[in-house]
Amino acid sequence: MYEEIGRNRRASWLLIAGFIVFIVFLGYVFGELTYLGYGGMVIALIIALSMTFTSYFYGDRIVLSMSGARAAEKTEFPYLYNTVEGLSIAAGLPMPKLYVIDNAAPNAFATGRDPEHAAIAVTTGLLDKMDRLELEGVIAHEMSHVADYDIRVATLAAVLVGTVVLLSGWLRRSFFWGGARRSRGRQGLGPILVVIGLLVAVLAPIAAQMLRLALSRRREYLADAQGAMLTRYPPGLAGALRKLAAEQGTLAVNEATAHLYIVSPLKAGDVAERTSTLFSTHPAIEERIKRLDEMSLGEAPGPSPLGT
Q1: What are the domain boundaries of the chain?
Q2: For this structure, is 142 an active site residue?
Q3: Active-site annotation holder among 134, 142, 287, 294
Q4: DSSP character string of 213-249
Q5: Which of 8, 114, 138, 190 has its CA 20 to 30 A from that of 97?
Q6: What average pLDDT does the structure give for the chain?
């Protein structure tokens, strides 16, 4: 577990550093394509630092707001509170803040920057359709994301990747109103910058999304295994995943946050989800269930339990 925590902490800082460098590069290209010059780099650096600060300290609030989550009151959802409190004690973790999304589609996610600033959100559909053991399996899965600092990497990725996509769109639009004027002023370098800038503007969002999705798929397998170890009952989470697969509905979520959920909240017929695992936000549910079934039969060794 401690190895995974260290890996996620390094991934967080590498993600931040890579984001800042990349945004500054976009600012340089933008400046060269317009009359801003090196001013484009300065503006980009300010944007990068501001978004990094915002995503690190306020990324969870942004994600919760985008999902339409509301604070779960203990008087309204006592069973949810009791379940999370029990698993928090078993995992040796602080009690996360709890939120509810009023939607019949069963789903859940965790967010935050560390166990002391973590939040778990569940849909009302999940609470209605899961039995006690299945709900414990889902919550344990999300608690493992909290324990391993997956939530920090995932939340940063959601906000920073969204920023890369937005700024790349601005860069593409700059070709229509600034690229030609700037390139005429610097005839030798202008055409090259136009080509480089166009490639960056087109490929950057794709590369950023692929990185985000790759991180998500790897995290889900480990969270399944550690969640099953926490409850000591793999069939609970396996049963929950079977219900989630059978009753999977669509949530009104931003695509940038889809990787946070225990199963994809996107439309089941989405082209990217249907055509290639490369662009899917999650590994196949059937494969996740198979691995949990193997744990139940003792055919596959599980990871170290949380807190050890």
Answers
A1: 2-296
A2: yes
A3: 142
A4: HHHHHHHHHHHHHHHHHHHT-HHHHHHHHHHHHHS--
A5: 8
A6: 82
